[in-house]
Design a protein that fits this description.
Enzyme class: hydrolase
Family: Belongs to the adenosylhomocysteinase family.
Largest sheet: 8 strands, mixed
Bound molecules: 1,4-dihydronicotinamide adenine dinucleotide
Strand content: 5-15%
Number of helices: 19
Helix content: 40-55%
Cofactor: NAD(+)
Catalytic activity: S-adenosyl-L-homocysteine + H2O = L-homocysteine + adenosine
Mean pLDDT: 97
GO molecular function: adenosylhomocysteinase activity
Radius of gyration: 22 Å
Shape: globular
Number of strands: 15
Distance between the termini: 44 Å
Length: 468
């Protein structure tokens, strides 16, 4: 690490962070097994990994696994509120540069992201770990504008963040007109963590603008069917409790979206005794919600009755300012979809006569002119990470084991420019690494049973089209 080559809240938190990392390691058997498996061969030697993923205690264990496998790593958070400052401090104290702190401004966020690319001696990264696709977006836009020789100006009505991204890229172009072209030429690929980032990748691939190989980690079964679902089942309730400590039992909770995250969110709220109502656009997911026993209706229909509203769609304008104005006094509004596009925060801020009062960081009361208020968590950004500490270690061990395997695949394999999935035998390997910790005893197929089913005794056990 170059001297002072980091920016975090407070290095003196390192010891506190280290204690938490130590406990997390015990709960992350997948990552620890990969460390043991590759302790001698260090297959990531020579890899320079730029990571943009919530700088939490669990991510610290991921980072230190990548380092244990031989990689050189630089890290930022993929969200302005999600960093656990003690985790960032511990990682820096152990020698990996981190640029992240809880409560970054958007300018600071994009400044941090730019720090990912300089590994010293003119070297850029050769691998990216991305969560939500911001680094992937930045390098692709960077190349696009370098080829054009200019960066366009933000259009009237563009999101504030769009303006900041364009300014960041304009400054980069002025300073080094080939920065991103060089970076992309040196990249072996990106592994993407979440649904929203994966959607961006497939769109780029379809448009023919994708420039590097990509691995879709999100859709490994041991990622999206575990982290998105069981992770949110834990961290959504945690975020609501820490933010407001409101009694969830008996309340009417509205969950927008019944995909993997929506299923986990609905289960969590029901588990606390809330009455849960779901909204969906997809008839299949709507039918699933109905058959799971949830009322399914529209936001407009239920907006005056709900006590808690949670968006989980990865879409935009799911709850509008006009709808928020119709909510009950002190209704709670939070989002766990990746970006702050689901709750119309700009519309709320522009609502005539509305007043914003900070109850505490990441909890704001918005008082309407008629005197009634609503409570918005984490300013419409991921509240399970902004108001709490995100998913617990055990489930993140599954996600991050997939990440480590994806990085190994990109580094040692030959992947073309496209979006790839990890093969099923590796998905099953990740699950297997987590069974002992839960005392699971797996049944082994006899040879005759395996032949009857048409699978190998050691797996893979399911065809590609199986949906779990
Ligand atoms: P998904 O695609 O499985 O689910 C999203 C669901 O929302 C779909 O069923 C879709 O039909 C529905 N939907 C879309 N527009 C809607 C609308 N206008 N009204 C109602 N429903 C609508 O995706 P997944 O995996 O559940 O992820 C959702 C979001 O959560 C993504 O942005 C993802 O990146 C993020 N995520 C957040 C995590 C966290 O820790 N907060 C963890 C994992 C994912």
């Amino acid at each position: 690490m170059k001297n002072q080559d980091y920016k975090i809240a407070d290095l003196s938190l390192a010891e506190a962070g280290r204690h938490q990392i130590r406990l997390a390691e015990h709960e992350m058997p997948g990552l620890m097994a990969l460390r043991t498996e590759y302790a001698d061969t260090k297959p990531l030697r020579g890899a320079r990994i730029a990571g943009s993923l919530h700088m939490t205690v669990q991510t610290a264990v991921l980072i230190e696994t990548l380092v244990a496998l031989g990689a050189e790593v630089r890290w930022v958070s993929c969200n302005i509120f999600s960093t656990q400052d003690e985790a960032a401090a511990a990682v820096v104290a152990a020698g990996t540069p981190v640029f992240a702190w809880k409560g970054e401004t958007l300018e600071e966020y994009w400044w941090c992201t730019m720090q990912l690319f300089d590994f010293g001696d003119g070297q850029g990264p050769n691998l990216i770990v991305d969560d939500g696709g911001d680094v992937t977006l930045l390098v692709h836009k960077g190349v696009e504008f370098e080829r054009a020789g200019a960066v366009p100006h933000a259009a009237e009505g563009d999101h504030e963040e769009q303006r900041i991204i364009l300014e960041t890229l304009r400054a980069s172009l002025a300073e080094d007109p080939q920065r991103f072209t060089r970076i992309v030429a040196g990249l072996r690929g990106v592994s993407e963590e979440t649904s929203t980032g994966v959607a961006r990748l497939y769109r780029m691939a379809a448009e023919g603008t994708l420039l590097i190989p990509a691995i879709n980690v999100n859709d490994s079964v041991t990622k999206s069917k575990f982290d998105n679902k069981y992770g949110i089942r834990h961290s959504l309730a945690d975020g609501l409790n820490r933010a407001t400590d409101v009694m969830l039992g008996g309340k009417l909770a509205v969950v927008c979206g019944y995909g993997d995250v929506g299923k986990g969110a609905s289960a969590a709220l029901r588990g606390q005794g809330a009455r849960v109502v779901v909204t969906e656009i997809d008839p299949i997911c709507a039918l699933q919600a109905a058959m799971d026993g949830f009322q399914v209706t529209t936001v407009d229909d239920i907006v005056e009755q709900g006590d808690i509203f949670i968006t989980t769609t990865g879409g935009t304008d799911i709850i509008t300012a006009a709808q928020m104005a119709r909510m009950k006094h002190n209704a709670i509004v939070g989002n766990v979809g990746h970006f702050d596009t689901e709750i119309d925060m700009a519309g709320l801020a522009a609502y005539p006569g509305v007043e914003k009062i900070e109850v505490k960081p990441q909890v704001h009361e918005w008082r309407f002119p008629d005197g009634h208020s609503i409570l918005v968590l984490s300013e419409g950004r991921l509240m399970n990470l902004g108001n709490a500490t995100g998913h617990p270690s055990f489930v993140m061990s599954n996600s991050f084991a997939n990440q480590v395997i994806a990085q190994l695949e990109l580094w040692t394999g030959e992947y073309g420019v496209a979006v790839h999935m990890l093969p099923k035998h590796l998905d099953e390997k990740v699950a297997r690494l987590h069974l002992d910790a839960l005392g699971v005893r797996l049944t082994t197929l006899t040879k005759a049973q395996a032949e009857y089913l048409g699978v190998a005794v050691e797996g893979p056990f399911k065809p590609e089209h199986y949906r779990y």
